[in-house]
Write a structure and sequence with these properties.
Alpha-Beta Plaits, 2 helices, alpha+beta
C-alpha cells in the first residue's frame, strides 16, 4: 500500500521539441536530462521522446519523497534547453492512485 506515510508523489513533464532535431540530438538531450536533472537529484523518470517529450518523475528511492524543490529543479533544467519549447511541469500528485 502506498498510503499515508508511505504515499509516493510525482509529477508530469511535457514539452515540444524544436524543429530540426535529429535522432542523435534527441538521444543526447534525453541522456543529459536523465543524468543532470533526474539522477543527479535522486529521481527516476518514466517516459520518452519522439516528436514530443513527456513522462512522469518520481523519487529514485522506494518510499522516497518528491517535493516542490524537485519540480522546480526539473522545470529549470527543461526550460534552459533551447531544443525544448512549451515546457509544462505538472503539480505534485499521487504516483499510485487517482489516475482514473
Amino acid at each position: 500500500m502506498h498510503l499515508g506515510e508511505f504515499q509516493e508523489l510525482g509529477f508530469m513533464v511535457d514539452a515540444k521539441l524544436a524543429s530540426g532535431q535529429d535522432e542523435a540530438q534527441r538521444d543526447s538531450l534525453l541522456y543529459r536530462f536523465l543524468l543532470e536533472a533526474v539522477e543527479a537529484n535522486g529521481l527516476a523518470f518514466g517516459g520518452g521522446m519522439n516528436s514530443d517529450f513527456s513522462g512522469f518523475v518520481v523519487s529514485g528511492k522506494a518510499y522516497g519523497k518528491v517535493e516542490e524543490q524537485h519540480r522546480e529543479l526539473v522545470r529549470a533544467w527543461l526550460e534552459s534547453q533551447s531544443a525544448l519549447q512549451q515546457v509544462q511541469v505538472g503539480e505534485l500528485r499521487d504516483a499510485w492512485y487517482g489516475w482514473g
